[in-house]
From TrEMBL:
This is Alkene reductase. Signal peptide: none annotated. Residues 23-352 form the NADH:flavin oxidoreductase/NADH oxidase N-terminal domain. InterPro entries: Aldolase_TIM (IPR013785), OxRdtase_FMN_N (IPR001155), Oye-like (IPR045247). Pfam families: Oxidored_FMN. The gene is nemA. Residues 1-23, 130-149 are annotated as: Disordered. It comes from Streptomyces albospinus. It comes from the Bacteria.
Amino acid sequence: MTATTPTPTPTPTSPSAPHHQPLLRPMDLAGLRLPNRVVMAPLTRARAARDGLVPTPMHADYYGRRASAGLIITEATWVSRQAIGFADVPGIYSAEQVTAWRRVTDTVHALGGRIVMQLWHTGAASHPDHLGGRVPAGPSPVNPRTRSFTTTGFQETVTPRAMTPAEIAATVADYRAAAHNARQAGFDGVEIAALGTFLIAQFLNPRLNHRTDAYGGDRTRRRRLLLEIVDAVAEPWDGRCVGVRLGPYLAAGDLFRPDAATLADHDELVTALNDHPVAYLHLRGPDRPTPDARPDTAALARYRHRFHGPLNANNGFDRETANAAIEAGTADAVSFATHFIANPDLVTRFALSRDLATGDPTTYYGGGARGYVDHPVSTWQDNPGQQP
Ligand SMILES: Cc1cc2nc3c(=O)[nH]c(=O)nc-3n(C[C@H](O)[C@H](O)[C@H](O)COP(=O)(O)O)c2cc1C
């Protein structure tokens, strides 16, 4: 038989061609080989079974549909019963929860994906309704003046108790145990949520942390809790696979402000992370002033130069701005939250320049399948003029 020379396939020149999209280049993160840099950001969806706060079969369905993400970061998950501060959010502190999460990780892995668990503790931002009537504990008796979502709706936070040194040590131990449980449940790593109005961010913040012991006072002492948690969480992971998520630009009420002191605290904190087993930094940038504004990449670059490992950037990115940020070297990967709610096949849509669907915010927190596992994937019939 005579061999025929195959007709060369024309090199795609459309900007949607994968090699033109930095987002679609593989990379190493948290000891994992990611096939692309489209990360699913953590999303609290408040659909755990109320009895035992366990993930349900719908969780496996929800995460499995998103397995083509370069990396999935789960919804924030309770490290202990004391950490609870939002209704119907799952935990990773009981054997039942570990078993239920195993179904999720098995599904994602069977579909070729990678998944890390975000660890959460609300501290003073909890509410007595979550804690059997007990007053929540935080760094100092300062009301964070925020709201907690309880089974009877949003409620104003109260003035908390100051954690005792023994409670701080127990909390660090709870994080270590949760990280161990996450490994038992088949996760590929863990991410420490150190942002928002929650426990770790409360300790970092001098407006909430008035302590005079080893965990309060100057910047070094205020960041001590986080760094102890990083070291503790890394133990069951042999010093690998631990990410840290920071949000220095949060503006919430008058207690959480991205002023010069907050940003300088984070300058030093990010530099200090280099001396601890941190596999990646997940940075939430400033909120955009208008829906059409581009993400403020200068604000991300401030921390980019201080951290020596990979940077996963977030907040307000789309395909074009994310590709530009990676191309410019401002970020190694970009995480998407709201786009992943409505577009389980976000990677495919980016690769093929498909239109994105928009989610329904009334289904973000709580409820059932609607808005959770019913978003369709795009098909070859969609946008027929845009096939590569
Ligand atoms: C419904 C919802 C739930 C969220 N839950 C979490 C969470 O559990 N942990 C976290 O760190 N951030 C959480 N966030 C913040 C997102 O991860 C992300 O920072 C934010 O939506 C901006 O990213 P985006 O512009 O891609 O949507 C949540 C956001 C939304 C809309």
